[in-house]
Design a protein that fits this description.
With 145 residues, this protein is an all-alpha fold. The protein is built from seven helices and no strands.
Length: 145
Amino acid sequence: MIPNRTRVDTPAIKHAQLHRSREQTCRLNRLRLSAMRCRASARVDVSEACNLLCVDETQSEHRFEEALLRSLHQGVGRKPRFFAVGAAEESFDERWLLQVLTVAQQGDMASVEFLVRSRVNKTMQRSIRFLIRGAVGRFGGRFTL
């Protein structure tokens, strides 16, 4: 039997890349940039981040996103993995975060709830949902803590 040979110089096309929109690719790269900036910053306790941002809900979505990235380690119980900007490969953490932000932006509360409950420690879920909500600019109507 002759083993199949694949060309090494041909990049593999990932299934997820075929279905990602340009907007999602831009959001993923923005998240990766923010994650790189947050690596140099101190880790933040989730409740402390929420309390600081709760004072003024008109804060920019960028600050909520940064607070989410800086405190996500506490919610998931380990340091999340992010690749370099423009990398073709995606980590599970990146895919999860991209998905939860996408459904939150669409106002799909049931999906947000499912995704948060599937990954985040129970004691941190409320705070992480608050940060997700702020990261997509949804402080009105349909979203609750």
